[in-house]
């Protein structure tokens, strides 16, 4: 189990680094939209116990909020 946790945490860190690097050429509004979608997806997953619909709904709501917050 310890090995699985280490692999999962390494994968999480690598994906976070890659996703942050992908935002370098984006506008501020695009960055805020992507960040909002990511945070919303995590929030939706946590609140609904990992349901797919909750994760997608959270990503959609977070993306809209991130997009509108930068106007």
Automatic annotation (TrEMBL):
Residues 32-69 form the Glycine zipper 2TM domain. Pfam families: Rick_17kDa_Anti (PF05433). One of its GO terms (cellular component) is outer membrane. It comes from Pollutimonas harenae. This is Glycine zipper 2TM domain-containing protein. PROSITE patterns: PROKAR_LIPOPROTEIN. Residues 1-24 form the signal peptide. It comes from the Bacteria. Keywords: Signal.
């Amino acid at each position: 189990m310890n090995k699985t946790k280490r692999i999962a945490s390494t994968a999480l860190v690598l994906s976070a680094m890659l996703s942050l690097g992908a935002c370098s050429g984006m506008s501020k509004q695009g960055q805020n939209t992507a960040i909002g979608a990511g945070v919303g997806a995590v929030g939706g997953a946590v609140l609904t116990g990992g349901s797919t619909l909750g994760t997608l709904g959270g990503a959609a709501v977070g993306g809209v909020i991130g997009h509108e917050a930068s106007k």
